[in-house]
Inverse folding.
């Protein structure tokens, strides 16, 4: 167990929060064709306590079966090590592998492709969402955003995507005063492309606005661009809102029949990793009606919440 692992293990009720700008890397800048954002990409650099009642690591503890529990620290370490080995074998990802080797409790690498840092960020974000949902009438909405060819993903600007999505929401669903969730990229092997989609907690919308929202995203080219669910199991549903997988499920995923998860092909993994390397964790968070205040997300209409 590394010093980083020991330090995190000593803090049972913490999660990392974002308070400072990430550093750029000349070699990575050359790889992706432009500098990593120094000011916009906010990274994990400090520890913040998560109230026990909103701590997903306690709500979905390690003694539950895999798939029901929140990812444990050993789970994250094993995935980080496996990803690092793959990065070392793919041309152009050597520096990312080096960053994962250098990750420690005193100096976390804060890379989106680091499963250990990602778990800490997800723990913090889930706690924030659970805190807000307890006092609001919310529903879960999954939205297909855009399809991006694998060869174009590495230079795709996620912040531009978020601006387009926010504009569609403001026009189609003006009563969506609260929106919080994460954006993921799902690999579609048959199309050799990634489907960007978002899992969101949203203020309950009237039927006409849901209809308008479906129309706004109807040009994505998927069968169901928007899926709406009632919020019945907050801990399980909210913890699913943001993940950073390095696998895919070939074939149809309709209904309850899902194919087995397998590792991404090397070209897809390289494109996904370089794309993630351009961004910070908060870049993958889509929120409306919220702002950061220190280590918390607060509602704009009520800054004390």
């Amino acid at each position: 167990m590394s010093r980083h692992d020991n330090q995190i293990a000593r803090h049972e009720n913490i999660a990392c929060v974002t308070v400072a700008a990430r550093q750029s890397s000349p070699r990575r800048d050359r790889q992706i064709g432009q500098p990593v954002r120094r000011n916009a990409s906010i990274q994990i650099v400090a520890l913040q306590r998560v109230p026990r009642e909103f701590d997903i690591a306690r709500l979905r503890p390690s003694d539950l079966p895999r798939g029901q529990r929140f990812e444990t620290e050993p789970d994250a370490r094993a995935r980080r090590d496996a990803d690092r080995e793959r990065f070392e074998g793919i041309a152009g990802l050597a520096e990312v592998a080096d960053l994962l080797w250098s990750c420690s409790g005193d100096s976390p690498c804060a890379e989106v492709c680091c499963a250990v840092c990602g778990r800490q960020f997800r723990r913090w974000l889930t706690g924030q969402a659970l805190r807000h949902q307890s006092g609001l009438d919310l529903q879960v909405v999954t939205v297909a955003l855009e399809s991006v060819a694998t060869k174009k993903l590495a230079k795709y600007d996620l912040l531009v995507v978020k601006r387009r999505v926010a504009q569609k929401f403001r026009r189609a669903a003006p009563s969506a005063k609260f929106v919080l969730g994460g954006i993921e990229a799902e690999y579609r092997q048959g199309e050799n492309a990634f489907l960007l989609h978002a899992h969101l907690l949203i203020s309950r919308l009237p039927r006409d606005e849901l209809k308008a929202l479906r129309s706004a995203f109807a040009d994505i080219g998927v069968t169901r661009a928007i899926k709406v669910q009632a919020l019945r199991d907050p801990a399980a549903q909210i913890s699913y809102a943001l993940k950073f997988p390095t696998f895919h499920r070939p074939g149809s995923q309709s209904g309850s029949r899902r194919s087995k998860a397998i590792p991404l092909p090397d070209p897809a993994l390289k494109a996904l990793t370089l794309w993630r390397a351009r961004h910070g964790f908060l870049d993958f968070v889509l929120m409306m009606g919220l702002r950061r205040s220190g280590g918390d997300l607060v509602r704009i209409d009520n800054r004390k919440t």
